Amino acid sequence: MINRVVLVGRLTKDVELRYTTSGAAVGTFSLAVNRQFTNSNGERETDFINAVIWRKSAENFANFTSKGSLVAVEGRLQTRNYENQQGQRVYVTEVIVDNFSLLESRAESEQRRNQNNNNQSQGDFNSAPPENTFNEQQPQQGGFTPEQMYGNAATSFNEDDLPF
Hints:
It is built from three helices and six strands. By secondary structure, the protein is of the alpha+beta class. The chain has a five-stranded mixed beta barrel.
């Protein structure tokens, strides 16, 4: 049986990093992932997917990302349930992250954050984020873009652009 999930999206808020009683780090976050198609109004919808990351990876992920960071995560889908304070059974489905990649450089991330802060102070919330050209597993010079690594319906490239 196979249970693998690969997602590319932006963090909806900073990673919430906590520690278990035994000292293990656990980070929880939500990833905004655009759908590849548009709805009947011609708008692209977004899914908000909850994820959990553990131990040293959680600490690294929390330290190197922030709200709006473009990331790729790989893991497995897991469902759990619990009883809330009202006595109702609550079911939760989330991605348990095994690996992640940062898909923008720190400079791009800072630039986007500054741009968003400026736009919010001016009341402009419709600005698009900058192009993303960084992958943690590849060096910035001569590295591959996220579109080359993961594909993108809006981006086309020919065989000469492939990394292999």
